[in-house]
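Sequence, structure tokens quoted for completeness.
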Amino acid sequence: MKKVIVFLTLCVSSICLFAQQTTQQQVQQPRPPQWNPASTEWYTPVPPTVKPGSSMGQPPSDAIILFDGKDLSKWESSRPIPADSERGRRPDPAPWKIENGAMVIVPGSGGIQTKEYFGDCQLHIEFKSPPAENYNGQNRGNSGIFLQNTYEVQVLDGDNNPTYVNGMVGSIYKQSAPSANAYTKNGEWQVYDIYWKAPKFDRNGLVEPAQITVALNGIVIQNHFTLKGDTPYTGLPSYTPHGRLPLSLQDHGTAVAFRNIWIRNL
């Protein structure tokens, strides 16, 4: 019995000694470095001050006004210049008309494009479909907003107008259907806010694909969608290397109206 008691006493003593040594070792462990909050703060460069528009949808102070309801001086025809034209000839003036502070497609006159070239950007544009009459599907209020003259955000009458969903209003044409139909009513102004990240290329080809976020009437309908390439009517999308290019608007044969168009370089 005494041997058992002695053995237990030795065990308890060993445990206590081990615990004491462990505690001392824990106390002696080096503490992690204490961060100074200022070490993760920076003060330059200071972002520029941009004054928001006076009301929702109005251009901020750093926006480039592409159409203010008065003239088409920032636009030109997107029809190709004939090969036999004199060297350095500019495209023809924009052939659309201005009515009540809006620019309106003259069907058959061809699309228009900006004289200035753009890459990454924030675009605000408002459009109104013409009366539906007897048109349906892709023939009703059809136009298109082409980022960098290449990638189309569909403009179409979405008021009780069934069509293929990757070609309806708010689609990235033939690539991505919108997550919702946020179109209101035929004859009412519709508001697009588009956030565009241009594709990046190097001498070997594509480095980073294009990405886009689209809001229609304040509702996000394309959320950071990654494009597979251009947006052809027939065939599959593909990328062809390019740099900054104009913004263009399509003439698809109906008198769609546009107003309050502005853009910010990002």
